[in-house]
Structures are given as C-alpha cells and as structure tokens.
From TrEMBL:
It comes from the Eukaryota. Belongs to the OB-RGRP/VPS55 family. One of its GO terms (biological process) is late endosome to vacuole transport via multivesicular body sorting pathway. It is a multi-pass membrane protein. This is Vacuolar protein sorting 55. The chain crosses the membrane at residues 7-26, 32-50, 71-90, 96-122. Keywords: Membrane, Transmembrane, Transmembrane helix. It is found in: Membrane. InterPro entries: Vps55/LEPROT. One of its GO terms (cellular component) is Vps55/Vps68 complex. It comes from Cladonia borealis. The lineage of its organism: Eukaryota, Fungi, Dikarya, Ascomycota, Pezizomycotina. It holds the Pfam family Vps55.
Length: 128
C-alpha cells in the first residue's frame, strides 16, 4: 500500500485550507457568490469517472472507442476552467471584490488538486 496515514492527513489538511479560503472569501466580503466555486470543483471529476466507466463495460474487449473518454475529459476541463473564470467574471462585473476573487481561485485550485491527488494515491491496480 503506497498511500498511508500521512498521505491522508496531508490531503485532508490541504482540503481544509482550500475550503477555508473559499468560505473566507465569501464571508469576509459579504458576497456568497464565490461558493459556486466549491460546487464546480467538486463536480469536476465526475465526468471523467462516469465516462471512464461507460467506455469499457466489458473487461474482455478492448475495442471500445475513446470518444466517450474524450468527452469526459472535455467536460472536466470545462468545469475546471469555469471554476477559475467564474470568480474572475464576478470580479470584473463588480459583484465581488478582487481579494475575494484571488482567495476563491486559490482555494478552488487547492480543492481540485486535493481531489485529483486523492484519486491518484488511492487507485486500485488491476492484476489482469
């Protein structure tokens, strides 16, 4: 087992810092629109997971196309870019302040990075 207790503790610490930054960006500046970043970053890995499961329903055949996997990656990329662009758009339109935008983007990237790191460290390897 490559991932141990120290990895879980480190990932949970980084995830807590990311959530803290996003929550503080909304609470300190009295604009709760920045909480939409949390939704986009928590939903972002789902298209990869769903399309990866749908692409190869049969373990014995490798003839399935990669179009559905590419679609899942496209949707994930769209959600990640939206998580960065949404606070920038809100700051540009004057709905949130620039420090709230910076805190929200940094916190969102920490959240998404933690989710990706968790899936990389705790992936089950197939033996066949």
């Amino acid at each position: 087992m490559a991932a141990g207790l120290k990895t879980i503790i480190a990932l949970s610490f980084v995830l807590a810092i990311g959530f803290l930054l996003v929550i503080l960006s909304s609470a300190l500046f009295q604009s709760y629109l920045t909480l939409l970043v949390v939704a986009t970053y928590t939903i972002a890995p789902l298209p990869n997971f769903i399309c990866g499961r749908c692409a190869n329903p049969d373990d014995f055949m490798e003839s399935s196309g990669s179009a559905i996997i590419d679609f899942g990656r496209f949707c994930t990329g769209f959600l990640v870019v939206m998580g960065v662009a949404l606070p920038a758009l809100l700051a540009h339109s004057g709905l949130i302040q620039v420090p709230a935008m910076v805190m929200s983007i940094i916190g969102g990237l920490l959240i998404y990075g933690t989710i990706i790191s968790f899936t990389m460290f705790f992936q089950e390897e197939q033996d066949f």
